[in-house]
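Help! Submission page says 'invalid entity' but I think these are all valid:
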Amino acid sequence: MTPGRLLFTLFLIIAVVFFLRRASKLFAALCLGRWENRFDQLKRRFRDMLVYGFAQKRVIQNPFGVVHLALFWGFILLLLANTEFLLQGMFPLFSFAFLGERAYGVIRWLTDVSSALVIVAVAAAVIRRVFFRPTYIKANADAFIILGLIACLMIAYFANHAGEIYLHESHANPWTPISAEIARLYAGFPADFVRFWTDAFWWIHAAALLAFLVYLPYSKHLHVLTAIPNCFFRSFTPVQGVERMVFEEGREFGVSTINQFTWKGLLDFLSCTECGRCQANCPASQTGKLLNPREVIHTGKENLFASMTLLGKRLNLDSLGAMPDASNICEPLVGEPPLGVSEEEIWACTTCGACMSNCPVFIEHIPKLIGMRRHLVMEQARFPEELYLLFENSEQRHNPWGVAPSDRAKWTNGLDVRVLQEGEHAEYIYFVGCAGAMDSRARAITASMTYILNAAGLDWAILGNEERCCGDALRRLGNEYVFERMAIANMGIFERYGVEKIITHCPHCFHTLKNDYAQYGAEFEVIHHTQLIANLVEEKRLPVAQRLNGRTAIHDSCYLGRYNQIYAEPRRILTEISGGAPVEMERRGERSFCCGAGGGRMWMEELEGKRIHSERTQEALRCNPSTIAVSCPYCMTMFEDGLKDEGAQDGVKVRDVAEIVAEALEGNKTEAVEVEPATASVGAYNQSGKAQATA
Amino acid sequence: MERKRPKKPRGVAIYLEGRCTACGARCQAACPTDGIDMTDNGEPIIYAAKCIGCKKCVKACPAGAIEMYFTPDEQAILAEYSREEKSDELDATPSVSPDWSGVWVYIEHREGIAHSVSWELLGEGRKLADALGVELCALILGDAIDVLAFEAGGYGAEKVYLVSDPALKYYRTSAYVHAGVHLIRKYKPEIVLIGATGQGRDLAGAMATDLHTGLTADCTGLAISPSDRLLEQTRPAFGGNIMAAILTERARPQMSTVRPHVMQRPVFEEWRKPILIWEPFNAPENMIAERILEILPIQSDQTVDLASANVIVSGGRGMMAGEHFGMLHELAQLLGGVVGCSRSAVDAGWGTHDRQVGQTGKTVSPKLYIACGISGAIQHLVGMQNSDHIIAINKDPNAPIFSVAQLGLVGDVFEIIPALIERLRQEGPYEDRPLAAVGAE
């Protein structure tokens, strides 16, 4: 064996040992997390891995993602060539030539072309980062080190390979056209010189390749290894929520150290590519709050690495699994940067799901933040003081405002509503929700719904005073214990009446009853009012008498859209009523911008940065609408506040889809007048002007 | 006792032939089990098999044509029940020893400075003690508290029970409970009143538990029932929908807490000198679970004390501009109150967060709340709807604020408020005028 080969073999072994040591350490760290079954539906997982991992469907949703796709596939193709390169380094006679002239030729051609492609992609990436860096991409050395290594690899490949062609050590054409072209550059140089540089570039290539292998698991480019598994183990719910908790003595409630996540939660940390798309879509980050979802994940990763150091030798492949005392050893996760996520960040999240919907590798940010909120609320009793009232009222009165439970059904005064009595049954239960029952503005939505349900002749009833808050805000705010009590009580009521179908006009009730209550054995069907109305309108069961005038801008609620993929229904309704599609805002669908009230933010003050609802209202006003159509009582409140801030409340109205439909129905005029003064804002859509609010 | 008791029979509704006035099938509508049909004459046919004995039809019938029927066996069971209920009633008569006598008020203080609720309670205790013809006493726990004893005397306490010990310098639940319970057991007051403050709530609950007696929290009214000399403790219940009068019949003392500013503070009369009764504190330090490590001052940038204000003049979006809050300040000053605001006024930068009333701001219950240009979103209403008197000024007659206001003025705030200010200026300072008169304007 020549000294060169010996040296290379030695380096290779060292590099592989380093790589494997780090990889095994990381794998052991993953196993610190709690168990969670993500091995179901393997077929679908495999398919999603191909679609999102290999075809990079989400990456290329951003146009520049094509560059990443090119890099990714360039790398995949170069894997073969680099395997050959490493083996040749140890056994110079080895080559894939045994595959046959044609097959080997194709491999060489692909290597040549994809190397060139990668150089172009690297150049594009560098130019973007240097000259056109979007604000959501952090300027750090990591990216340039990796890009530099890649460029170095490719240049070394060409220089080395061209030299070999020039020296007739490798037959070139027609399989390696680009290398052959470069080989001409050597023309006129003495053979010794070319020999030297050909060998030198071989060593540069070798060094870069081995450096890459060692550096990879320490950098953000760890995602090369973890992103594809993370797509494989993705959650199939559009925006993954939190798991049900078990309230037993000796348990830990919530997350304050990384070992309290599940293994998938830890894999998320290792999969982050720091692409910044979560940040670019986050309502908190975009309005100057401290919270940045990317930083949360990055902090988790740093914390994981630091905790690995603290656990030291105990963390190895022999002792895979959870360590009961790890919570005491690991770095605290809730606290100050760089290893902790601050309380200010934790409470700033609106749980809108934009981060998760836009993450190319399916990282789940929100369950992590809610996990930390659970820890703060249930183990530390630390939360913003505004929430004290919310929690107390929810606990004692089963609604956020502390209105007497006996007043919940008061809105029915003067309306034709059946309250379900003991022993009775109705096909549809209309779950009114706290806002719909108590907030005077939202009561107008409820009154409209009443009118629509009656006009369609459905067999429906409400639960009256028995209904309780669904517990949405409590769950998102981490007050899981009170949420659980609420959920169990509501489930008991649903069971007692044999409820089969529930209608809600609030996306938060909708999501909670539909998806969160599934953890409590809910089997009933939950229907959002936009779904119901869309069906009724299509089946011509609602006699639409008049058309809506003016421009209507539509706002997608997070818990309806991103959480439950209901985008088409409200648009179909508005198209039907107004005879034209509604005006779309800049950010819509999966990228819709939160109103700022979700995740319990409705019940908190927003003191930092720009108000989220102002940002969204201004965006809506840029569409120059006369009506902003919403399908959520929270969005309603936030837009109305926003319009007042902008001084636009006289020209632009915020209306729930149900209100717009009710107004367009035949014979509605009499209905609205009968409403008692407390709910008189119903009169706003009364054309006769009798109960019209003086503006 | 272990004998399996037959279930209390509920009976079956029967129709008393000929009494029906054909009122319009009210009984049928009332029946929850669809157990009543109507004849063509409008008379009921009751299906006994469907009847669950709920009596709804009996109550619904305006003519008394339906009654509950019991078989003779059932009647016998009922008779048995009513005998037992009578004997239960006999058990229920108070078996309280007449040794318990006197009205005590707990004087809360921090390092010798009393909380004003204590003096308010002495004023209320005076009325109770006079009604009962017993003495009014104060209970003071602390260290170097002599001055307080004389102050309590000035506010009407005839006797003052004192436990003075360095161990009691700062409030610690177990130490204070120990001392308080010891005194109450020894001197047997029939009534103990405590302020519903953070400290008072903590102490009252713990003492009542140790004493095995009842405690009525947050009373809004206290009176002596003349017939049986019991303390009638009135407090809102069921979300404020009813006022409940609560009696502590079978245990002594009768304990109540009252929130600050609910009762009137009596006049201080320096010449009154109380009798002081000193008791030693005999609990060893190791029996006291709590240790005071450090006393931290309240971290607060709060400049306005909305929660304890008697009068709040609040402005909302309808004030149109921040400079218009000047007239609210003037009005508040004339009424001896402070200025609050709604969230949207804070959003607009017209007020600071510490003045914000509502769900995410302060919850207030002043004697008078004047809402100016506030539409009354539920977020705001929950923060102020428990005020004694609410006056709302808004140009929108449909504003939800009017649903909670006793007095609603539909009109322009910029006309009404200056007129109100003018009138108040003519009438002179606030102190000379009873509040009711202001409310009536």
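Support: the input was valid. A stray whitespace character was the problem, and the output above is from the cleaned input. The first helix of chain A runs from residue 3 to 30.
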